[in-house]
Design brief:
DUF3107; 1 helix; alpha+beta; two-stranded antiparallel ribbon; ATP-binding protein
């Protein structure tokens, strides 16, 4: 699934693919925004961990969980 995270006062966004489900990502974002966790911690499909301070989150865009099709579809 593709994720895009906007960070306040930063011209670039974090964009990566994760193996976590949409529900797991949504739960982590909700915990960070509600103050239960001071940071949003997510990992991509290669194992890289991204840690963003909850106060700096501008937006989180959660893509679909469908696998990308490669090649020609008939």
């Amino acid at each position: 699934m593709d994720l895009r995270i906007g960070i306040q006062n930063s011209p670039r966004e974090l964009s990566f693919e994760t193996s976590q489900t949409a529900a797991e990502v949504e739960q982590a974002v909700a915990a960070a925004l509600s103050g239960q966790s001071p940071v949003l911690r997510l990992s991509d499909s290669k194992g890289t961990v991204y840690v963003v301070p909850a106060a700096a989150l501008a937006y989180v865009e959660i893509g679909t969980e469908e696998a990308r099709r490669i090649g020609f579809v008939g």
